[in-house]
């Protein structure tokens, strides 16, 4: 089991990992009519705009990843200009029945909320990390995070933030163990951050 940079051709596998960890770390495969929708939001733009900040756990095939963006406002502008418009055409409101998870994420796609300026002032980078169960409990998550934190530091980002669902207690504990602190909290989740050094 190794950690390597993202390589072209990994896209489908990383989209699949996103879906298979899309229920607060558990498998969300049966919860979506469109198995690519989550990946289009949470994987694709990072591979397009920040490929040098994408790292993969490989045990013969991709089994986990971490994706980062060095400058969140700049990343959001890139997505608004190039990534979201074709997806909004592909997934117009009403594409899926109301109340489904697909419909929720179509709304997310159309109603993007910019990052909190108070958060990005000190923690301008952000990340997403997902690991399949077979990689967990073996130090690979920590190793992935250390790899990305070093790359973000080298890229000039002083701090990084992330979002985590309130129900994902396992992930919250993992981030706290890595030195992340809670910056903002709501009933649905929290924003956590830490310096890249």
UniProtKB/TrEMBL annotation:
A Pfam family matched in the record: Acetyltransf_1
This protein's UniProt keywords: Ribonucleoprotein, Ribosomal protein
Domain spans labelled N-acetyltransferase: 1-197
GO CC annotation terms, alphabetical: ribosome
Top-level taxon of the source organism: Bacteria
Single GO molecular function: acyltransferase activity, transferring groups other than amino-acyl groups
Protein name, entry field: Ribosomal protein S18 acetylase RimI-like enzyme
Taxonomic source organism: Jiangella mangrovi
């Amino acid at each position: 089991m190794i950690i390597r940079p993202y390589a072209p051709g990994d896209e489908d596998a990383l989209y699949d990992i996103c879906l298979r960890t899309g229920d607060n770390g558990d498998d969300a495969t049966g919860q979506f009519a469109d198995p690519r929708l989550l990946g289009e939001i949470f994987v694709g733009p990072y591979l397009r705009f920040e490929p040098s900040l994408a790292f993969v756990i490989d045990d013969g095939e991709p089994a986990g990843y971490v994706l980062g963006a060095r400058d969140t406002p700049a990343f959001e502008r890139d997505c608004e200009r190039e990534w979201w418009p074709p997806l909004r055409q592909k997934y117009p409101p009403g594409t899926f029945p109301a109340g489904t998870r697909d419909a929720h994420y179509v709304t997310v796609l159309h109603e993007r909320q910019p990052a909190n300026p108070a958060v990005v002032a000190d923690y301008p980078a952000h990340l997403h990390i997902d690991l399949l169960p077979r990689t967990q409990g073996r130090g690979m998550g920590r190793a992935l995070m250390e790899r990305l934190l070093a790359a973000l530091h080298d890229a000039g980002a002083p701090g990084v933030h992330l979002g985590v669902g309130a129900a994902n207690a396992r992930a919250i504990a993992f981030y706290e163990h890595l030195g992340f602190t809670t910056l903002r909290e709501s009933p649905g989740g929290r924003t956590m951050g830490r310096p890249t050094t």
